[in-house]
Hints:
- The chain is mainly alpha-helical.
- It folds into two domains: 38 residues, no CATH class; 172 residues, CATH 1.10.230.10.
- Helices cover 55% and strands 4% of the residues.
- Strands 1-2-3 form a three-stranded antiparallel beta sheet.
- A hairpin with a 2-residue loop joins strand 1 and strand 2.
- Helix 7 packs across helix 10.
Amino acid sequence: MTIRRPTEGPExxxxxxxxxxxxxxxxxxxxxxxxxxxxxxxxxxxxxMIWLMVFGELPPQNKAALLDAALMSAVxxxxxxxxxxxxxxxxxxGVGLNNAMASAVNVLGDVHGGAGEQAVALYQMIDNIAAExxxxxxxxxxxxxxxxxxxxxxxxxxxxxxxHPVDPRAPRLMELVAEAKASSVVEGRYLDIALEIESQxxxxxxxxxxxxxxxxxxxxxxxxxxPAELARGLFCLSRSVGILAHSWEQMQQGGRNKGPIxxxxxxxxxxxxxxxxxxxx
Length: 281
């Protein structure tokens, strides 16, 4: 069978049905955004490859290192995280790794998994306000927070954590961003915005509301020019590592049909009392 790429006529219309600038592939040839795969192998890291696939260019090593830190820092948060718990439960149902992973990734939505995207959008909103209005930096952050609350409610994504008084991942990531800013790898605008949000939240609440992993990775994504919606996709890539690890571990541990609570405990029932079915006349 001869495989070819039509250049004219009706067959060209068929070939044009799908268009992509990502991969050029034909027998004996694979290239991503113009780079031959054989040259990429051994010279480009997985994180650099993610950047190339998404943005179309190979990243500078220092920017790739920031992306790598963001991706590795959010891989897992234990079985209390719904996505991880679902992965483990699915594994006890006799499905394969791909099924368990898909089940878990499918729950990474607005509430569980969406805060990073939302934080990027918040930072970008504030950055636009600061650029367009004659306000001090602090007032621009205040106005941005107010607008965000009007649109989305009082919850500010990326700050505070239900388990950690201080999320241990966030300060280290901010150290890396600060170092990158000092070396002119990134501008640091979004770092400054996030730190000012943290300060204003502490003042308004009367107690610290520290940045969490979502707020910290959002700083990195925003500094690297990642669109807000794409930030969620990157988080899904990151969390997939933990999902894979927990799915595999559960398969090794065994167990069948494990639900969300042990079998000797029953859920709370708050419906109608026991009642008889009335027989019809």
